[in-house]
């Protein structure tokens, strides 16, 4: 099957040809005809399957062949709304809209947080046909009255499962309440959880289910391996692997924002050009870091799971789990960044002792074992040895020898000139000038146990 056989407009086919695309992916060949028919769609597709083109291509076709509804005012309102969970994914989707629609007379814009809102307001004021947005910034525009959603013909919720995971369900419901009841709805999700099914039941009208394999064929090109290493030796092992395996470019995952910053700084200090990307970075910082990584200016990009959502890099050779995710599905999303477009990829995981249960969960989810590898000098010691080393293994202090009783004027033997504590409760022997004195000695004489 070719794109030509799908019935897309010649202008769209020309844009596809300009980009070097001729054959649709499975999700595209299944979704495009159904969407072009105007039906609601519930699609299960992961990042890397070509799902973005799966909805942008038929969306462009529909809007360019369907007359615009009569609108109030002199500026035409938004005709299609695409909602995504992250800024990076929003930027990627809008880039696809621009690329595939460059020969069409349609306008588009993207709005997300972390950047100045005024240029977005200016773009919306001129009117756009297709708006790509993250939930929070879209609600900001709605509250300020800078966007008109009353004429939306098509709604796309992209990576709906991630939006629910990130707590956007209330924002999504607020947005849905402002849209016209008559519209086409497209919901794309990597998983069909109970929450997604509930959302779909309230949103979609007799939807067509479009589903491709859980992992696309390209995932078979990904090689997995795990290195067991003590937590404190992870960075040394990472640097060793980068050198030993001659890794020129890698996306490295950490669990926390602080951990991503710290690791990127440490790698840079060691002479490895690395940048961090996470939710606390400003949008210009995130955009520049991603651009530098794509252009190979930065060798390593250290990312958290949320920030990495939407990162789409062709022929990325390595994904490294510096820290394993505690949710198995996140491992699937991480490794989906490599092994694309027919190119092989490698997923390396550095596993500390407290992460072994996470690895077991991941293997159960994937229904296969991840091979273990060893790096010379980085083999962690058994738990029993580690516990022994962490314990106080100093030999017990020998008991102090008990001196034999000595008379006045004699040094107590074995005392080194200092006597043991005397008295029924360990009281110190009475000194000169006290009420009592030892038998056979005068109060004025220096006690045998006292030495200047």
TrEMBL record:
SUPFAM superfamilies: P-loop containing nucleoside triphosphate hydrolases. Pfam families: DEAD, Helicase_C. It catalyses: ATP + H2O = ADP + phosphate + H(+). Residues 403-452 have a biased composition (Low complexity). It is an enzyme of class 3 (hydrolase). Its EC number is 3.6.4.13. Keywords: ATP-binding, Cytoplasm, Helicase, Hydrolase, Nucleotide-binding. Residues 369-452 are annotated as: Disordered. GO terms for molecular function: ATP binding; hydrolase activity; RNA binding; RNA helicase activity. Signal peptide: none annotated. It comes from the Bacteria. GO terms for cellular component: cytosol. PANTHER family: ATP-DEPENDENT RNA HELICASE RHLE, ATP-DEPENDENT RNA HELICASE RHLE-RELATED. Belongs to the DEAD box helicase family. This is RNA helicase. It comes from Capsulimonas corticalis.
């Amino acid at each position: 099957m070719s794109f030509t056989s799908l019935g897309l407009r010649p202008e769209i086919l020309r844009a596809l040809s300009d980009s070097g695309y001729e054959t649709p992916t499975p999700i595209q060949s299944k979704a495009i005809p159904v969407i072009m028919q105007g039906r609601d769609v519930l699609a299960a597709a992961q990042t890397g399957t070509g799902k973005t083109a799966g909805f942008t291509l038929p969306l462009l076709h529909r809007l360019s062949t369907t007359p615009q509804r009569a609108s109030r005012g002199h500026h035409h309102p938004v005709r299609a709304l695409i909602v995504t969970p992250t800024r990076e994914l929003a930027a990627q989707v809008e880039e696809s809209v621009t690329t595939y629609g460059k020969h069409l007379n349609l306008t588009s814009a993207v709005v997300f947080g972390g950047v100045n809102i005024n240029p977005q307001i200016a773009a919306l004021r001129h009117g756009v046909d297709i708006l790509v947005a993250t939930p929070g910034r879209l609600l900001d525009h709605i509250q300020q009255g800078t966007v008109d959603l009353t004429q939306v013909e098509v709604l796309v919720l992209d990576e709906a499962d991630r939006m629910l995971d990130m707590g956007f369900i209330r924002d999504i419901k607020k947005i849905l309440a402002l849209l016209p009841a008559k519209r086409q709805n497209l919901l794309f999700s990597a998983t069909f959880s109970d929450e997604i099914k509930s959302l779909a039941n309230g949103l979609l009208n007799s939807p067509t289910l479009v589903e491709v394999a859980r992992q696309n064929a390209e995932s078979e090109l990904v090689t997995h391996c795990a290195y067991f290493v003590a937590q404190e030796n992870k960075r040394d092992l990472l640097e060793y692997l980068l050198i030993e395996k001659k890794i020129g470019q890698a996306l490295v995952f950490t669990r926390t924002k602080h951990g991503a910053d710290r690791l990127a700084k440490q790698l840079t200090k060691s002479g490895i050009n690395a940048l961090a990307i996470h939710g606390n970075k400003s949008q210009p910082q995130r955009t520049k870091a991603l651009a530098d990584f794509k252009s190979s200016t930065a060798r390593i990009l250290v990312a958290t799971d949320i920030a990495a959502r939407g990162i789409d890099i062709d022929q990325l050779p390595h994904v490294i789990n510096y820290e394993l995710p505690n949710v198995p599905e996140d491992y699937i999303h991480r490794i989906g960044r490599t092994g694309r477009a027919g190119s092989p990829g490698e997923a390396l995981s550095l596993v500390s002792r407290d992460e072994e249960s996470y690895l077991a969960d991941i293997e159960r989810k994937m229904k296969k074992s991840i091979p273990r590898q060893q790096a010379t000098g980085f083999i962690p010691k058994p738990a029993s040895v580690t516990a022994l080393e962490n314990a106080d293994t100093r030999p017990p202090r020998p008991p102090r020898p008990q001196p034999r009783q000595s008379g006045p004027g004699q040094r107590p033997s074995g005392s080194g000139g200092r006597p043991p504590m005397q008295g029924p409760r360990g009281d110190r022997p009475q000194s000169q000038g006290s009420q009592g004195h030892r038998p056979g000695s005068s109060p004025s004489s220096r006690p045998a146990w006292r030495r200047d």
